[in-house]
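Issue: ligand-bound run for flavin-adenine dinucleotide - logging full I/O for the record.

Environment: standard queue, default settings, no custom constraints.

Inputs:
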Amino acid sequence: MTAPLAHRARQAGPARPAGPAHRLPPDATARAVQVAVAAGAAAVLALWWQDTEHVTGAAQWLTGAGRITGLLAGYAAPVLLLLMARLPVLERGVGADRLARWHAWGGRYLVGLLAVHVLTVIWGYALADGRGPLGEGVDILLHWPEMLKATLATLLLLGTGLVSARAARRRLSHETWYYLHLATYLAVALGFGHQLATGTDLGPGPARLGWTALYLGTALLLGWYRLAVPRLRDRRHRLTVAEVRPEGPGVVSVYLTGRRLPELRAEPGQFFRLEFRTRELRWAANPYSLSAPAHPHFLRFTVKDLGTHSAAVAALRPGTGVRAEGPYGAFTARRHRTRQVLLLGAGVGITPLRALFETLPGELTLVQRARSDQDVLFRAELALVAGRRGARVHELLGSRAEIGDLGTALARLVPDLARHEVYLCGPPRFSADAVRALRGAGVPRGRIHHESFAL
Ligand SMILES: Cc1cc2nc3c(=O)[nH]c(=O)nc-3n(C[C@H](O)[C@H](O)[C@H](O)COP(=O)(O)OP(=O)(O)OC[C@H]3O[C@@H](n4cnc5c(N)ncnc54)[C@H](O)[C@@H]3O)c2cc1C
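Outputs:
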């Protein structure tokens, strides 16, 4: 029996390649963000420069280092939160995976800056006062305004740094790590008073106003995009599970239906964070990509059982409520520049490529890497789309040893590989091998668009 929604997704509609909405260079937003963040950091350093006539002696050098690292840490904290604020311009222009990488990388710097700030300030003042660092530290903690809150903030941030270190993260479930990580919001709020009360470079005037605006603006944007928008969308679209269908071993497609779906403006290649309203899955919002272009009456996601959340999706019943945050992601036609396109997917990484295969303009070749014949996903519908579009589909089956060198295998399947733009999605090891193979075949780095399923 063919159920109506599944049937419509499999029919895949007439080929309807869509042109990219903007013709900006693919990395324009990312570069603009990097320039803006660097300019902000330079402006912060200028605050110290403007307030410093001369630096003489070890004590002044140390407190100077403390002021600079304190200012940079105070600036980095809201910037790192803004990267995670789900701002549509960043989610679509930079991409959630790259934002998460920048956030993690910046988080390590923030922890380093804070540690140096604390040590150099205490040591510098201890030298100036001619006392030991321990006594000076206790004095600062007990008598300077807002210091207790700032100390708690520092401890929370250092603790977050510890639980985010690779070794610790491997031992924690994603949800435990995520909820512990939320302590950073409290830490940033607690640290703000200290910056205004004791920051000698943030006295009354434009600097203080700008600093306050940065923190207030960040709080408003976070509140709007992370709390208000998902709830408003939830009420407007009222998504529910319409159907769950097996697709392959451990893989199911889940169809969501709801009201006013076209207003979501979801693009092929994008993903949503889905929270299913069951007792087991409430509180966990996991990311899943659209595995078919958004239909006016349903959205399709295809999920492989890799853990508790993804395995429970197979047992969802029609009518289950769903909170969907999104659409997010920059792995879309907006990155498309070249006529010849290779869509290269492995395992469940084929999901966003399946949606893009239907709509991306140009001459398309799709290569699906799977361990065995049973693991191939969407075979029939990919063939249907390929027939309609005059596109090519290849399957690369077998173990790594059977496939041999990935570059050679790809060159055999895709003539003129170097002229292609590539959309790549698969497990980390496959993606790393694929990037190496593609670079070796002469595909420039800027023409390889990669979506990572690990945020
Ligand atoms: C942008 C994006 C798109 C994705 N699209 C698909 C898709 O279309 N189909 C599909 O089957 N899978 C997809 N995934 C992967 C999917 O989100 C994870 O497999 C799923 O969340 C695992 O959760 P779990 O509780 O079942 O397993 P766990 O055992 O909890 O986790 C397994 C792995 O998934 C990671 N993970 C768990 N929860 C999250 C989370 N909330 N956010 C990010 N990573 C998490 C864990 O760090 C771990 O590496 C996507 C991931 C991302 C980041």
